[in-house]
């Protein structure tokens, strides 16, 4: 009876050992290239660069339309409206790019991330 228990215990130990070795041999290590904060910082910069470029192009285009509208208007009221639109365009451009710059460049300074390199 004791001999059967010993053989059964050895067999269980052997199966556990084989399973452990098989698990260690078949597991694939995963190495992350960058951590979450570095990836987030990179993504924020890429998105900001895209938004800044697009908003600058659109602000330039709309400025052209507003200036042409102001110069070609036939009364003072329409001309004043065009100049008001020009002010709104550049204020919106400054706000969009200011928020993007704040998120991309100023916030990482507070969190201790290196933004220069």
Provide an overview of this structure.
The protein starts with a helix and ends in a 6-residue tail after the last helix. By secondary structure, it is mainly alpha-helical. The protein is rod-shaped, with a radius of gyration of 33 Å. α2 (36-72) runs antiparallel to α3. The mean pLDDT is 83. The protein has a domain at 34-111. The protein is built from three helices and no strands.
Compile the SSE list and pairings.
Elements: H1 2-26, H2 36-72, H3 76-111
Helix pairs in contact: 2-3
What is the compact description of this entry?
The chain is an all-alpha fold.
Average predicted confidence as pLDDT: 83
* Contiguous helical run count: 3
Number of strands: 0
Percent range for β-strand residues: under 5%
Low-confidence region ranges: none
Helix content: over 70%
Helix/strand structural class: mainly alpha
User: What about the largest sheet?
Assistant: none
Cα distance spanning the termini: 71 Å
| Rg over CA atoms | 33 Å
Note the run of SSEs as H and E: HHH
Question: What shape does the CA trace take?
Answer: rod-shaped
